[in-house]
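> run fold Gene 25-like lysozyme
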Amino acid sequence: MASKNYSLPLHFGNFFTEEGGRLSTCALLESIDHHLELLLTTCPGEHYFNKAYGTMIWELDFERVASRSQWEESFTNFIYRAIVENEKRVVDVDVSIKLREVVREEGLSKSVAVRQRVDIYVLGRLLATGEKCGFSYTLYLGPLSNE
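> ok
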């Protein structure tokens, strides 16, 4: 029996209509992509039923960086562990990141803000089919946000 993959965010309005009564579904890769993005942007302790769900990258958001290579290794390991523990549909996971500074002009005040941009690349294999898959995400640190 094929499993259903639900689209995120969940729109419960469709579920309660007389003609609909169903939540939106999506393809397996799209479902994994949505789940990984949710996993990356969730701080441990935020999920009501699983306090360990999320990534510990939040601990590094405002940390003073003594060693860039050590910081990158910790960041990568936090993401790797979160994916391996929480996304069982992907195996042979490999995570890499690219860190760079971005100068942005903020709003009407034209103040300049320097932020860290982290490009995250996740490679793996689908457990169900053995196909290779890849995902990429961009996060800005200080404070953490996504693009």
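DSSP finds three helices and four strands in the chain.
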